Amino acid sequence: MTLLYRIDAPAHAIAQTFGARAGEDPWTGGHVAPGSFAPVITAGREFIAGPRPTGRRLERRMIPRQWGVPPPPSGSDGSRTVLTVRNPDSPFWIGNLRNSEFRCLVPATAFMVWGTGVNARGKRLRHWLGCTDQPLFAFAAVWKDSEVPSFALLTCEANALLRSAGRETMPVILPADSSAQYDWLYTDWKRASSLIAPYSSSLMREIPAS
Fold this sequence. Notes:
Elements: E1 4-7, H1 11-17, E2 30-32, E3 37-42, E4 61-67, E5 84-85, H2 91-98, E6 103-108, E7 110-118, E8 124-131, E9 137-145, E10 149-157, H3 160-164, E11 169-171, H4 178-186, H5 189-193, E12 204-207
C-alpha cells in the first residue's frame, strides 16, 4: 500500500498543469501522509445533492482534501480511515465511481512503497518511484463528503517494477495524455474504469532516497 507521496510543485503550477482553477489553495510543496490535506482536482459539485446536470461540463477546480475516507459503518475499526480503493465494485465505492463528478485527480511527483527485506542498517526498505514521461502526474481517485472532505486512491495490479520491490498492487497512475484525465473526470464508468490498469514499468523510475 502507498502510505506516503510527494507533490514537489506549488499550487499555481499544479493548477496550470491540470487545467484547473487554483482558488486559494495554500499548497507550496512537500510530503502527503494519511490524514493530511493535499491538493485534489475535481469537476464535481461538493456538498450539493444529486447528479451533475446532463450535458454540463463543470470547470476543474483545485481544492484541499484529506487523504483517507471514513470507513463504512460495518467496518471493524471506525477510527481507521480508508486510504485506497482495492475493489471498485464494492457497494461502498461503486455509487460514487459510477457518478463521474465524484471521481478526481490527485497530483503527485513521487510515491513511496515498502519493499521486502531490510537495508544494511536493518531498516525496512522504502522505494520512492516517479514517472519518466510526466514529472507531475495524477493518481486516479474518488472523493466523499462527510464531516471532513476526503479522498481515496484507486489501486490496481502491480507492474513489473513494483513486483520486483515485493508489491502486489500499486496506485492507478493516469497516462500523460490529457484525454485520460478527461475520461476519468467526465465520462461514464465503463470508459473510465478502463483506466484502472498498471502503469508501464518502462515509464517509471526509482528515485534515490534523500
